[in-house]
Amino acid sequence: MDKVSNLQRKKYYIETWGCQMNEHDSEKMAGILENIGYIETSTPKEADLIIFNTCLVRENAELKVYGNLGHLKTLKNKKPDMLIAVCGCMMQKKEIRDLIKEKYNHVDIVFGTHNIHKLPELIANARQSSGMIIDVWEDSGDIIEGLPAKRKYGFKAFVNVMHGCNNFCTYCIVPYTRGREKSRLPEDILKEINELAAQGCKEVTLLGQNVNSYGKTLDKKVSFAQLLRMVNEVEGIERIRFTTSHPKDLSDELILAIKECDKICEHIHLPFQAGSNKILKAMNRKYTKEHYLNLIEKIKKAIPGIAITTDIIVGFPGETEEDFEETLDVVKKVRFDSAFTFLYSIRKGTPAAKMENQVPDDIKHKRFQRLLDTIYPISLEINQELKDKVVEVLVEEISKTDKTKVTGRTRTNKVVHFPGDKTLIGKLVKVKITNPKTWTLEGELIN
Ligand code: SAH
Ligand code: SF4
Ligand code: F3S
């Protein structure tokens, strides 16, 4: 379309909270909207349709959505023709839908995680109706294939390999918002990746809440390791990543696949959540500290130089000082490249929310700080070993803080900044690390 007709096209703005799963759902919604003639805007004020794709995993994620929704009221008053839609994990909860209905009546459309493909229909209905349209599906067990996606980058892409989760960790709301675990057929996944490769995509990240249990729901069983080996054969793809792995299902077969497949990046994200066996049991994680440490040892031995990252929760109900010290012990023994750390957040409807021995906030916060003080120096030490080394970087964008630099990622998923311009975006280049820091690396391009 030319510029003049672009002016007449309706504009959408999507704000996304939560994990990569949600980010990728937003890419699909963008794809759907562009198919029906919408164009994207980065300014909510200019939008004809605003979508909030929400997350329920922790209370602060939830509160941010209410705050932002409140702010939209003034905008909607000024621009009554604008449509406001709220979707994502929060909308799968009836109490939250009721709250939206009661307190945020400037919202036009409410839908959930299982019916994003219905967006065009919902928009058409909302244009004709004055009331709020609420259409949230329970998990039907089906996977909707063939949805378009407008991906953020051309050279790297998320690809769902499975949806939902069957693990019911006692703190976690995800199985309730995303439904039961179901795997996509390998042929559907490979078709998508082949198409991406044909369009110039170099890196794929395979997504699932627990990718290690991929294939269990298929009639013809395929393991995740077998799937990875198939993806490794796709011409044009140069890097393969995947997330998230669950320690209880991580097999020797998978470790061997990572070791043997040249395109699989040397990075594994393996959340351990807590170090104490008592807490792990209460979390329903189904592995022990010893099992986790043993796994890490096997992985490090098989794939030297692999980066290991993790998720950790502080202050799960019943966590004592001794329990917390077990968490610190795992951090010191494994030496993570980096870690996502969370204060335990009560999620209504999960078993842990009803546990009586909740940890007081001040104790949680003190432990949290001690955890960070343990993680950060280790991250720095690991990164310092990269000084003067040459690494492969996939360049992603112009650096946000310094326009004379570009930002990219190593195979080990570390962020690197180095002098360069936009011609490098999407290219795989060699960079010499000159200044390793705790969270990022600085370097220079090697010709
Ligand atoms: N499926 C992935 C991640 C799901 S959510 C996995 O199993 O690892 C991402 C992270 O959020 C979790 O790993 C956990 O560390 C954290 N998380 C989930 N629920 C939480 C809660 N109620 N309070 C604090 N952190 C939580
Ligand atoms: Fe939540 Fe556990 Fe499932 Fe991860 S594996 S999504 S933490 S229930
Ligand atoms: Fe949040 Fe839903 Fe992901 S609750 S973490 S957006 S699966």
Keywords:
binds S-adenosyl-L-homocysteine; about 450 residues; Transcription Regulator spoIIAA; 4 domains; alpha/beta; binds iron/sulfur cluster
CATH fold annotation of the largest domain = Rossmann fold
What gyration radius follows from the Cα positions, in whole Å?
23 Å
Mean pLDDT: 96
Quaternary structure annotation:
single chain
Describe the structure in your own words.
This protein is α/β, with parallel strands linked by helices and 447 residues long. The protein has four domains: 3-135, Rossmann fold (3-Layer(aba) Sandwich); 151-265, Transcription Regulator spoIIAA, CATH 3.30.750.210; 269-385, Transcription Regulator spoIIAA, CATH 3.30.750.200; 390-445, Beta Barrel (OB fold (Dihydrolipoamide Acetyltransferase, E2P)), CATH 2.40.50.140. Helices cover 35% and strands 22% of the residues. The chain is built from 13 helices and 19 strands. The strands form five sheets. The protein has a six-stranded parallel beta sheet with strand order 2-1-3-4-5-6, sandwiched between helices. It has a five-stranded mixed β-barrel with strand order 15-16-17-19-18. A three-stranded parallel beta sheet has the order 7-10-11, sandwiched between helices. The longest helix has 24 residues, at 361-384. Iron/sulfur cluster binds next to α6.
Short description:
This protein is of the alpha/beta class. It is 35% helix and 22% strand. The strands form five sheets. It has a six-stranded parallel β-sheet with strand order 2-1-3-4-5-6, sandwiched between helices. A five-stranded mixed beta barrel has the order 15-16-17-19-18.
